[in-house]
Amino acid sequence: MRAVAIPLPIETERLLLRRFDPERDSEPMLAVYGDPEVMRFIPGGPFAGLGAVRARLDRYAQEHEGRGFSFWAVVERESGEVVGDAGFGVFPETGDVELGYTLRRDRWGRGYATEASRACLEAGFAHLDPARIVAVVDEENPRSFRVAEHLGMVRIDTVRTNGRPHALFATSDPRPPQEEDDQPGQPRDDREDEQPLDDDDREPDRDHDDDG
C-alpha cells in the first residue's frame, strides 16, 4: 500500500468530507456519538460527554497527519451541518484498510451512508492503492449488510471480534489497470446510473476499536 495522504475535502452530490476540527465539531458529533441507538454496535456504547468526543476527534486528526487517512467529518452540503463521520481505519486482525461510517439518526434513510462510503472507496483506491478494502459488520446489523452489498463488497469470511461474530466484507479496486500514459490517481466516476440505498445508515462496526 502506498503511503500517500488522501487529499481532502472529498465532495459528492450532497455531502462534503473534510478533516475534523475537534474544537468546532465536538458538539455536533456528540449528537452522533452520544446517541445509544447510533452507537448500538460500538463497544462501550454512547460517549459520556464532550470530553470523550473531543478526545476521539483529536485522535482522528492525529491519525490523518500520521498515515494520510482516518475518519473524517461528513458535512451535509445543503445545511452545512456536520452529520456524522466516514473514512478509514485499519482492521487489526488482517492489517487491511477498513471502511466505516457513523451518521446522526435523523439523517438515516437518505442514502448518505452509501454516498459517503462510495466516495471514500474511490479515494482510497486512487490514493492508497491497497490490494483490497474491508468492512466489518456485526451479524445483527442487517442494514449495514445491505450498504456493503450495495457498494459491491462481497462477504469473504466470518470473524469474531469483541466477543461477537462479524461478517468480513471486502472489495478490490474496480478501476481497470492503468496504461503507462494514464494519469495516476484518477478515481473512476460511474455514479450517474446508481441509486443511493435508502436505509438506516448505521455504520459497518468499528467494534474492535478498544477505546470506543
Q: Topology of this structure?
A:
Layout (H helix, E strand, L loop, with lengths): L9 E2 L3 E4 L3 H12 L16 H18 L3 E6 L5 E10 L4 E8 L8 H16 L5 E6 L3 H9 L3 E8 L2 E8 L41
Parallel strand pairs: 5-6
Antiparallel strand pairs: 1-2, 2-3, 3-4, 4-5, 6-8, 7-8
Helix pairs in contact: 1-2
- Based on Cα principal axes, name the global outline: globular
CATH superfamily: Gcn5-related N-acetyltransferase (GNAT)
Q: For the report, how would you describe the main beta sheet?
A: 8 strands, mixed
Structural class: alpha+beta
Give the integer mean of the pLDDT values: 86
Share of residues in helices? 25-40%
CATH architecture: 3-Layer(aba) Sandwich
Number of helices: 4
Rg from Cα: 16 Å
Low-confidence parts lasting 5 or more residues at pLDDT below 50?
A: 179-200, 207-212
Number of strands: 8
Under the CATH scheme, which class?
Alpha Beta
Work out the count of structural domains: 1
Amount of beta strand: 15-25%
SSE series:
EEHHEEEHEHEE
Looking at the structure, the CATH topology is: Aminopeptidase
N-end to C-end Cα span? 27 Å
- Strand order in space, largest sheet: 1-2-3-4-5-6-8-7
